[in-house]
Predict the structure of Arginine biosynthesis bifunctional protein ArgJ, mitochondrial.
Amino acid sequence: MRVLPALARRAFSATAASRAKGPINKDHHVLEYSADVFPLGYGVAGTHCGVKKKAGVLDLGILASTSERPTAAAACLTRNVFKAAPVTVTTELLAQGNGRARGFVVNSGCANAVTGKKGLADAWAMSNALTSGLPESAAKGAGSFVMSTGVIGQHLPIDKITGAIPGLIADLHSTPKAWLDLAKAFMTTDTFPKLRARSFELAGRTVRLAGIDKGAGMIAPNMGPPQPPHATLLGVLATDAAVSPAALQAALTYAVDRSFNSISVDGDMSTNDTILALANGAASPDLAEITEASPEFPVFREQLADFAAELAQLVVRDGEGATKFVTVRVRNAPDFNVANTVARSVANSNLVKCAMYGEDANWGRILCATGYADVPAGAIDPFRVSVTFIPSATCADQSPLRLLTKGEPEADIDEARASVILAEEDLEIDIDLGNGEAEAQFWTCDFSHEYVTINGDYRS
Amino acid sequence: MRVLPALARRAFSATAASRAKGPINKDHHVLEYSADVFPLGYGVAGTHCGVKKKAGVLDLGILASTSERPTAAAACLTRNVFKAAPVTVTTELLAQGNGRARGFVVNSGCANAVTGKKGLADAWAMSNALTSGLPESAAKGAGSFVMSTGVIGQHLPIDKITGAIPGLIADLHSTPKAWLDLAKAFMTTDTFPKLRARSFELAGRTVRLAGIDKGAGMIAPNMGPPQPPHATLLGVLATDAAVSPAALQAALTYAVDRSFNSISVDGDMSTNDTILALANGAASPDLAEITEASPEFPVFREQLADFAAELAQLVVRDGEGATKFVTVRVRNAPDFNVANTVARSVANSNLVKCAMYGEDANWGRILCATGYADVPAGAIDPFRVSVTFIPSATCADQSPLRLLTKGEPEADIDEARASVILAEEDLEIDIDLGNGEAEAQFWTCDFSHEYVTINGDYRS
């Protein structure tokens, strides 16, 4: 018997009903929140300052911790050799501040990547404009992180940015509108702002978690902790739980490997990919920070990973030109790395993605991509591999459709049933390697004509 | 000063004149040959036997050596874990025959991949039908290789194939028509047959080389010698030079790394990729076989590599939906592997390929793909990398267009000039890593709407 994991189940249930072929319906991905779900002790704001040409389109945002105790910070950053200036600045600030930070500033419209010395100076100017406008902090060296996204190789209109930051500082709030404005300031080719919030119990207290991310193309992140420092996937996870910097980094690295590093739109890893985590302890001013040794740590880590997966999946739903949301689940692998590598290989296959777009049950391509995954020799035994389509929760017939069993194709695949399964927005491809117990999930979208149109002339 | 390498120069000159935007013009890629350019001592034939539904479309071909001395054989085969049955059979035959073979049989329309035990029996039946129909051979254990290409997971109509082989054996010729028929029998989504022939001097004699290949999609080969045995790029290089099996394998491995393993259409490595080499010595019956120690060996190896590159480039010209032919050249790298890995990363980037389709000088994507290439830490120094567009030979202005110099973007890139360069069918992207002396080239095509259309519903 097959039990859907919680994450996949939620992804499926997001699709309300059976659908006609076409772009993913995004309306129901913008959720409305009341003010009390957002973490305590943060102020946020967003505005249009002129990085983007179109008036009124938000392109600059800030978040600042207003908590009296030092705010723990962690980051996972792109492993691309060409790190954008904001990635360099964030890396240095994390080291200087000993894992403490004040907040961050983000702009969209220009990535400030491959911009040489001036680009680096501009990123520092953004950081300093925020830090210097905030009240004195108890945490020595704690600064403001920087995130930028947009076109590579162009300079920021830095005066417009630094000129607008004081106004944003004067306008810091924690209202649903302020959080949504901040999420809008992250957007480039995104078609909807990506904001989520939740609360959970930790050490007997209610703590809150807010998250924002962005991304629709150039999505194949592979981020690690700042050493070695090396995404245009941007995101932030802010909590009012009290967590030590080391524990926050450990939890974030774990969460990112199982969320943002397990999604793909087009297989291109950006120069700017950045996921920040902030924990200001405002929910429990009287409690010490959780460390990796705390009994609460695994609870926090799993909550963070689950929340990160929810946010990461939104990026795939908004994948450039996407009409399908595909979960690739690899089970019974020798270890997580093999499972993850196979899932990544299938999720990144252009031929698989085109077949999904065409609603073509071409499982040969799935197997082919499984076979060329870059795993150690012997990690896959072709005669133990099984492949199954798992129908979306919106399908009337919920039974899995087996395509391949232990390396042998099923004798009579019900193509009509396959067509019904593939007509849904959501699909899960289950790959059972049959030689271990480890599991990994990867989320991807299909490859459509619209993707080519969007990316054939991005800059104009 | 920049000097175009010989291969790139030939590729450029293939484009006769300036062009309107649209699919690659393929008419001038089918060349006419006279009978005397084909290697001596081979008979070839092709027919329609019924693997493909459409009457008259060639789907079965054979090549047999008619030389009296044993024919040396070598192969580079897919490294995909899911090896198709014909790959398994070819691997075993190469071992059994101690590097000797009689010829090969090829079919298109069905890949005989992931077809279990029956598939393996079918592949052996194809091989045996050819071998048993040929006269007795002096080379003990020498058999007939097998190649299949087409849909994965379906069984061959084996009786139609084995039933047609005796007729093909009775029809073996070395006429231009017979060679072209054999080339046509390789075709699947290919839009033109890929046949080349040339002659050169070796040890004072004229030797001849004929080559056929096929491929238009699922093209990102990574083939090695049979150990470890692990390609739907199919090809054969047949010569009448006398070369020992070991020397032939060494020369083929070298040639494939610099040709078929250095092309990409969509980044998907097939279960069937196979390149065969045969050397029957018919041009010089009185000479001993060349070994790796022979002074002639480097001459033969370079001729084979150059010829293989010509054939490999034809696959890219015929890339599914391709409108552009792009040469990615990485220079001044620490070693060949780094150069090759960077070139492969750029050539496989969907975002780079979409930008080429859109004729958009988005060099940031080139740099981005350079930065995420899977090379050892420190192999790329971002502050030493330069990127340049090299215009096609058809451009009036032949001067290179520098985009990035030692990590700093050029101040004023002439976008009008970039548009003119990008409007041509051919383009070379030159990436100078600035930290070594090694070089590699990779050939790729752009990513078009037509690619998505072709692959959205391949099986119907």
About this structure: Chain B is about 30% helix and 25% strand.
